[in-house]
Amino acid sequence: MKPAVLLLPLMLLTSVAHADDAAANRRNINVSGQGEVSVAPDRARLSLGVEASNVELKAAEASVNKVVRAYLAEAKTLGLKEEQISTAGVTINPEYVWDEKTKRQVFTGYKANRQIELRVDDLTVIGDLILRATKVGVNQVNPPVLESSKAKELTRQALIKATEDARSKAQLLADTLNVKLGAVRNITANDFVPQPMMYKVAQMRSAAADMGGNEEMGFSGGLIKYNASVNAEFDLVAP
């Protein structure tokens, strides 16, 4: 029985050696691929704020609440629904100034602030939403953030393009080397979801009463680009 016991380790060593030789002799090729898909934005997020100061807390609150109510009425006339509007953000803080004579902080009143968040599904009203905000007293207007409602689908399309690009490069190299392209052995992929576009509206007020808000403010959405990259390792097969 002793020779049989010694035979098993020998067979294992031989098998490992053959596997190592096969790995050493295996020919492969590593390539990378890139994919990009561009699309015009079809929705936006608009963030606004109303701020007011008064020595009386109630007066400061009443001032910002009045402006918010007036703006919500304007937004609804432009087609926005309740589920597209949020006015939950409210802050009230006391205000002080430094008195150099007494060397202490002196209370001067209260500052009230309310935030308005809008989800805009119709980009044709972006300009009007901004113009009407300043008209009713909204004094904090951030640039609209442009997005695409098809972000997930577009990211996948970019990934498909990147994969096709990688395989195309591998096939080109294999043909040039007069060998056959084998199966893919390893592949890694990365997709890059773009940051929402911050559009800076150029305020070009016009006297033309019939001019739309987007035209009056020089608004143009541009394009959002979705990118993906792929790294792939293919086997090369001798003809």
Describe this protein with a few key phrases.
239 residues; alpha+beta; Alpha-Beta Plaits; seven-stranded antiparallel β-sheet; Translation Initiation Factor IF3; 2 domains; 5 helices
List the helices and strands and how they pair.
Elements: H1 2-25, E1 28-39, E2 43-54, H2 57-77, E3 85-86, E4 90-99, E5 104-120, H3 126-136, E6 140-141, E7 145-147, H4 151-176, E8 180-192, E9 197-198, H5 213-216, E10 224-237
Antiparallel strand pairs: 1-10, 2-5, 2-6, 2-7, 3-5, 4-5, 7-9, 8-10
Q: What do these coordinates show?
A:
This protein has 239 residues and is of the alpha+beta class. A hairpin with a 4-residue loop joins strand 4 (90-99) and strand 5 (104-120). The chain has helices at residues 2-25, 57-77, 126-136, 151-176, 213-216; strands spanning 28-39, 43-54, 85-86, 90-99, 104-120, 140-141, 145-147, 180-192, 197-198, 224-237. The chain is elongated, with a radius of gyration of 32 Å. The protein folds into two domains: 26-41 and 149-239, Translation Initiation Factor IF3, CATH 3.30.110.170; 43-147, Protein of unknown function (DUF541), domain 2 (Alpha-Beta Plaits, 2-Layer Sandwich). The chain starts with a helix and ends with a strand. Strands 2, 3, 4, 5, 6, 7 and 9 form a seven-stranded antiparallel sheet that branches. Helix 2 (57-77) runs antiparallel to helix 3. The longest helix is centred in the last third of the chain and has 26 residues, at 151-176.
